[in-house]
Amino acid sequence: MERERESERDYCRGTPSINTSSPSSSSSSSSSSPPSLSLSLSLSLSRIGERARMAPRSAIAATFPYPERFQAAAAYAGIGRDPNSASTAAIARLPDDARLKLQWLYHQAKFGPYAAQKPNTRKPAEESEWTSGDQPEKMLSAEAMRLFVEVLEANDPEWYFKVPESIIKPLLDALVNPETIAAQNENLLETKDEDAIKEGFDSVKIFDTWTVLSTSGRKPKPRYKHGATILQDKMYIFGGCYSGRYLSNLQVLDLKSLTWSEIEAKTQSPGSATTVPVAPCAGHSLITWGRKILSIGGHSKDYSDTVTVKEFDPQTCTWANIKTCGKPPISRSGQSVTLIGTTLVICKENPSMNDVHILDLETMTWDEINTIGTPPFPRSDHTAACHCERYLLIFGGGSRSTCFNDLHVLDLETRKWSIPKQVGITPSPRTGHAGVRIGEYWFIVGGGNNNDGVSETLCFDMSNLAWSVVTTVQGRMPLASEGLSIVFTTYKGKEFLVSFGGYSGNYSNEVHVLKASYKSDIPPPITNGIISSTALTMYNSPNGSILNSEIKHDQDRKVEQTTTDKVHLSIPNITQKESSGVIGAVKTDIDGLKVALKTEQLLTRQLQQALALTHRTIANLTEELKVVVDGLAPERSRLFELEANVAELQQKLQPMEGFQKAVEFLRQKKAA
């Protein structure tokens, strides 16, 4: 393992940084571009070829863009070559399932959906893979190329270093051949949008549908029960569990470049400047706090009787154990950690589920909350979220034999548990799921029910207490697994859910994204507000009713009295019957104003999102223009240098003309 890491570091140092995006990924935006784009593409391909020639010969395949990288991978694997050489090709050394996947993807990339007959084999594993039906029947050719390279890299991580010279040279010559470049430019201008390689979050066109996100760099090891958080447009993945072993590595996904990288982090020893390796852990929670990351709880080999708090500093790449005051909670698994203002609220498995602790992040002091009301039944692996900076919502979880689908609310001011009345669909029981809040909406993803994975992604409207199904996945996908992580990020004014990992019979290291639409199937029965009297009643009433008759009667009486007083001030000597009519008219006007206000707020939000999108687009275009200008500067300097070299050579060739004449004269004289 250490040798592989050292080889990877040497390769990263020796290989120049090259944008490996496929040329066809620009076709959607270049179909109507000016002729200067053709020159820019030619220069880009030439620059790629030149850098590839300068790269170490052993790693040169890693510098190729698509489809050349796919062609190098297919030739190395031995697919599409002479059948007599298949036994000596790399594909013969791969497992049966990997070999079949590569054959499927190669055929999909070159010819379309795979329609060949069942292979003539007696191997049960190969027949099982063939008849599983899990392979996609239709996908873009470019996506099949990328998946082909990823499958080969997963089974043969060092294939870049093993590609023969006979495969490299033709592909390299094609990259810098002017005729090839001209043909590729012509193809780019004719390529349709649906055939282009779509990079990053721009590839997600449909709302409320999970999509696999293509990434570059070395992927993390598959895992579940890890921690995930967002800090400065980067998703940090720490720890987790794989095949019964705790993990200690810290992986980072840059959400702008969609590139994975690993941080060689260390733990700073208490009271000294020395560092020690990071202890593996799983079942912990990652929370972003300022410009640092907190890890709370979890299991590790370094057993602790109480919950530990660690802090990671991205500037120094070091973990440090945080010293806390007060009485920390007992160390257990399956806790939920929720950031509310400057405090962390931790709910842990307890016989009475009355184990609620608060950690003040400013003083690092623990405090235990003594709650009243009926607490939730003992459980673990639930999710929690905060609403209005006051209400802690607990959903799902499980015990040893039961999974739950109930929702409990803890009022952090009155410290009272309640079960509010909810509308919409009834969520299915689940445990080990993940949740993330975006505004007033709480998204619940994955989980299991002791029999199978839960396939639907839920959305809970916390203002209206309404459940709805966002989408449903098919089969044993990572989105229907336990121990996955979910975070959210913003891209071009749109909010995206980002999921990673999980276990559903197989460990996953895939990244899935979902573009949320913020729409609920249930019409809002109440108005949105910070903490309105209606919200107070919803969360705090024992039976969950939105308004009971006594409160409503008392409020109507107060409103009627206040409104009547105001009317008497402006209209004296008004009768009681007339005042009732005026009150009704005023209430109608108020309702109309509320509807108008809500409409204006919605329009304002849409305009703000459009304005933010415009600003981001301008910033991206400006950055792209700067990159183009910066790229032209070296080419211009090189052109001047070439012109100077040509002039110098012409001066050196002038004396050669007289020398040639003298030689010719001597030849004629000798011949005579």
TrEMBL record:
Residues 583-672 form the Acyl-CoA-binding domain. Residues 1-37, 115-135 are annotated as: Disordered. Residues 1-12 have a biased composition (Basic and acidic residues). Residues 21-37 have a biased composition (Low complexity). Keywords: Kelch repeat, Lipid-binding, Repeat. InterPro entries: ACBP4-6_C, Acyl-CoA-binding_sf, FERM/acyl-CoA-bd_prot_sf, Gal_Oxase/kelch_b-propeller, Kelch-typ_b-propeller, Kelch_1. The keyword Repeat applies. It comes from Ananas comosus. This is Acyl-CoA-binding domain-containing protein 4. GO terms for biological process: lipid transport. GO terms for cellular component: cytosol. Pfam families: ACBP4_C, Kelch_1, Kelch_KLHDC2_KLHL20_DRC7. GO terms for molecular function: fatty-acyl-CoA binding. Gene3D superfamilies: 1.20.80.10, Kelch-type beta propeller (2.120.10.80).
